[in-house]
Write a structure and sequence with these properties.
Blueprint: E1 6-12, H1 18-22, E2 25-34, E3 37-47, H2 53-63, E4 67-73, E5 76-77, E6 81-82, H3 85-88, E7 92-99, H4 105-115, H5 119-131, E8 133-137, E9 142-149, H6 155-162, H7 170-183, H8 186-192
Parallel strand pairs: 1-4, 4-7
Antiparallel strand pairs: 1-2, 2-3, 5-6, 7-9, 8-9
């Protein structure tokens, strides 16, 4: 099933709490897999608590010429920067949102109302994804996932077949490792975050 699919995981890196107030950057990484082998990688800078998450993820997909499947770790990156799965369907046939942990929608809504004047638009995307999510049994564990798109494929089987060493699909797991490694280099993170 996986041999013909171009799959990408898009995930963000670490950032210190001070980056939120200063609207500094962290890394957004997309790792492309085909035949369950890494084929390409793209790196973008994304603003902590900014509004450029969807734009940067779309740039990654456009650079790669489109894919069959996108894996996201929730729809928030770099704090409360949002990636809208529907927008990514311009360059992908399926977007799968993985929830590593059960989100507290009430806490998210409180935080958004407290810190963002555009909280409603951010919350709208978060609620849209969560409302489409279901608990799905995979070979590692039961996970909450949401799917966007029209690719005729069993999402539970797709996720199970991409879980190599953990419950997280391999393209997403590797993107997380790369983004986290890049962003934990304080010298590098300092350079990308200068205004």
């Amino acid at each position: 099933m996986l041999n013909y699919l171009r799959m990408i995981g898009i995930d963000d890196g670490f950032f210190p709490p001070s980056f939120k107030e200063l609207k500094l950057n962290t890394f957004l990484v997309g790792t492309l897999y085909q035949s369950m082998l890494p084929r390409d990688i793209r790196v973008r800078l994304v603003t902590v608590d900014g509004t450029d998450g969807t734009e940067k993820a779309t740039e990654i997909l456009r650079d790669l010429g489109g894919v069959d499947v996108v894996f996201l770790d929730g729809v928030t990156v770099a704090g409360f920067n949002i990636i809208d799965p529907d927008t990514l369907l311009q360059f992908s046939r399926l977007v799968v949102v993985i929830y590593k942990f059960e989100p507290s929608i009430e806490k998210i809504e409180r935080a958004l109302k407290l810190h963002f004047s555009d909280w409603e638009s951010r919350l709208k995307v978060i609620l849209k994804a969560y409302s489409k999510s279901n608990l799905v049994s995979t070979r590692w564990r039961t996970m909450r996932i949401a799917s966007f798109g029209e690719l005729e494929i069993d999402t539970a089987k797709l996720i199970s077949s991409t879980q190599l060493v953990s419950s997280i699909p391999e393209p997403l797991r590797v993107s997380d490792i790369i983004a986290s490694s890049l962003s934990r280099n304080s010298l590098l993170l300092g350079k990308i975050s200068r205004k």
